[in-house]
Amino acid sequence: MTAKLLLTTLLPLVSDLSRELPESERYRRLLEAMRALLPCDAAALLRLDGEWLVPLAVDGLSTDTLGRRFKVSEHPRFQILLGSHGPTRFDSDTDLPDPYDGLVDGLSGLLKVHDCLGCPLFIDERPWGLLTLDALDPECFEQIELDALQAFASLAAATVNAAERIERLASRAEDEHQRAELYRQANGTQNREMIGQSKVHKRLLEEIDLVGGSDLTVLITGETGVGKELVAQAIHAASPRAEKPIISLNCAALPDTLVESELFGHVRGAFTGAVSDRRGKFELANGGTLFLDEVGELSLTVQAKLLRVLQSGQLQRLGSDREHQVDVRLIAATNRDLAEEVRSRRYRADFYHRLSVYPLQVPALRERGRDVLLLSGFFLEQNRSRMGLGSLRLSPDAQAALLAYNWPGNVRELEHLIGRSALKALGNCRERPKILSLSAADLDLPTAAAQSPVAPGIAAPPLESGVDLRQATENYQRQLISNCLEKHQHNWASAARELGLDRANLGRMAKRLGLK
Are residues 348 and 375 in the same domain? Predict the structure, then answer.
């Protein structure tokens, strides 16, 4: 490799250090330059996040790789690379399992004999992540000078360090770990990452950052399974209250009397079974955040009592006349159209307006495009680790089926589908495979006609030439909604009832289909 080639490759990256670039574009240029310097079939940039490696950019690997989280202790090659101080090339006949088995584009089976090279990245003399290169030719990297990769890695580290966004991520790593610990102690659950790259998902993240820094009450709305609790956790993590706990209560899981006790606490003897004084969720969340899920299920009586606490910050435990002062930030979530509930007098208008100071709509999975593949990668990696497999991947027809499906149950449905399909596919194998590929048949998703709401007297249109499954599904939904609206003289509530949809969901679907 000539010095001229090395200089020609590195100069554009040096120039990029002084430019404002989106994170994804900066990473893309980085891998593009590396592949120009060191030709290979697949390359990846991974950030070390605790005990996990998080892919930030890939080239030559399947899209779902970006949604995977590789546990370092489960991947010996990654452990070796992170433990070295410079580039490492693995012998082509090594027995160490490859984390990218089944993930290289155009190669559905084991990588077997191939060339593999990697280099750790350091920032402030601490390991930040990895650059990895894979080539299907086992002799591809024989003539490569490792010093060239080391020089590139040093500039890559400088590129990462120069990006303000990456700096913030690196500097906050320890803080995020502490926040996760606080949440686990308070709720017994582990904070989860919000995965996605679609425009609507990025817009949601921007709104979370915006409202997170304030103390406003947030009403999170969205269909069942979109991840409203995850959004609440993200808002809390972005707030000045992040060092305090976030306390959750599912309002639909308890009867009215117990909801009051859970929210406000009680004193001994307040009711049968109250054998001692007990603090409620508001007092437990003092100084932090209270998350009320399914807030649309609260009775009018409980709404009135909650309204008083939100207005004054004062509450009384059941059976007590003593006032307790609390400082709590409230985040609520519902899959109901509360504005319609207010119009129908099933919900208090004053309480609704107190809740919806900052309304935040979480997009449905079907509105997030290829995010479904990133989320699939995340769930695939979870199940791969749980099932002890070398690799768990999606076949091309499975990816197409996931993209075409309408996802009435959203992310929760996807999570359950991946887990169920992986278990069934493994059960159908006579011998335990190293790589398990899920096909469209394994996913067993409903057909397009079965996904659409069915109204009497409306038949599915024939499939037009040149129209794919997703377009055909949307055409049918568009026709179905239009006919139903015309039938009900454009009364959206009546049309929604006939179609078996929530009115707000029907409105969003109509907007997506260009009917609104």
Answer: no
Which residues of 50-166 form beta strands (DSSP E)?
A: 52-59, 70-71, 88-90, 115-123, 126-135
Residue 7: other Cβ atoms inside 10 A: 10
160 and 42 assigned to the same domain: yes
Tokens standing for 89?
Answer: 């090339």
Tokens for 218, please give them: 């947030």
* Structure confidence by residue, pLDDT tens digits, 163-215: 544 445 433 443 444 444 444 545 444 457 899 999 999 999 999 999 999 99
CB 513 within 8 A of CB 481: yes
Tell me, yes or no, whether 13 and 67 share the same domain.
yes
Q: Which domain holds residue 488?
A: 449-512
pLDDT digits (tens, 9 = 90+) for 441-467: 999 887 544 555 444 444 555 555 555
Tally the residues of the chain: 516
DSSP letters spanning 314-365: EEE-BT---EEE---EEEEEESS-HHHHHHTTSS-HHHHHHHTTEEEEPPPG
Q: Quickly tell me which residue has 């803080």 as its tokens.
A: 175
Residue 249 pairs with which residues in a beta bridge? 292
Residue pointed to by tokens 């929530």? 502
**pTM, full prediction:** 0.75
Interatomic CA distance for residues 323 and 127, integer angstroms: 52
Q: Which two structure tokens, joined as six digits, stand for 40?
A: 């290979």
- The CATH number linked to 355 is 3.40.50.300
DSSP state of 296: G
